[in-house]
Q: What sequence folds into this?
């Protein structure tokens, strides 16, 4: 019974993320009424609980000299796409020691550049839908701007009266 309930929330295409991978995580971000896709790129320093429903992975990146870490649920509906940029050779399952390193000391030996991408089937539809919403919003703003310009032009002509000759 519980397995049937849990499987409906699991992703069909689960990313094969390993510690030491450099990945790009495409996340849906909601700001007010708008939604957009934001990319978080960094090093996977930990994975926990495997590929189960409560599985997570921690991604770390340096942003303007400050280390930023985010923990992502593996089966989160907010994650649109995960791209692997490169893999590194590591000998530990958790890379928490990377928190203390910076610059050249924080480099890992590259295993291979095998880019791979995992995304849900509906992810492309979601991205297209967001792009269409953005286009509709831009069109509304454009028509509103034109209407305001025409209104200003009309007021100028009315105020000027007979001084403007065409």
A:
């Amino acid at each position: 019974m519980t397995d049937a309930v849990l499987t409906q929330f699991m992703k069909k295409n689960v990313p094969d993320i390993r510690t030491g991978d450099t990945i790009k995580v495409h996340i849906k971000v909601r700001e007010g009424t708008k939604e957009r896709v934001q990319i978080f790129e960094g090093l996977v320093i930990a994975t926990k609980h495997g590929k189960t429903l409560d599985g997570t992975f921690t991604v770390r990146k340096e942003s303007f000299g400050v280390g930023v870490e985010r923990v992502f649920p593996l089966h989160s509906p907010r994650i649109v796409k995960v791209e692997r940029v490169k893999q590194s050779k590591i000998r530990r399952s958790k890379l928490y020691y990377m928190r203390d390193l910076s610059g050249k000391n924080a480099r890992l030996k590259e295993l291979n550049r095998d880019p791979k991408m995992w995304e849900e089937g509906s992810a492309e539809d979601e991205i297209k839908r967001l792009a269409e919403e953005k286009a509709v919003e831009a069109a509304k703003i454009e028509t509103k701007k034109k209407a305001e310009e025409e209104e200003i032009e009309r007021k100028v002509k009315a105020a000027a009266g007979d001084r403007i000759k065409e």
Notes: The mean pLDDT is 84. The radius of gyration is 25 Å. Residues 24 and 41 are 4 Å apart (CA to CA).
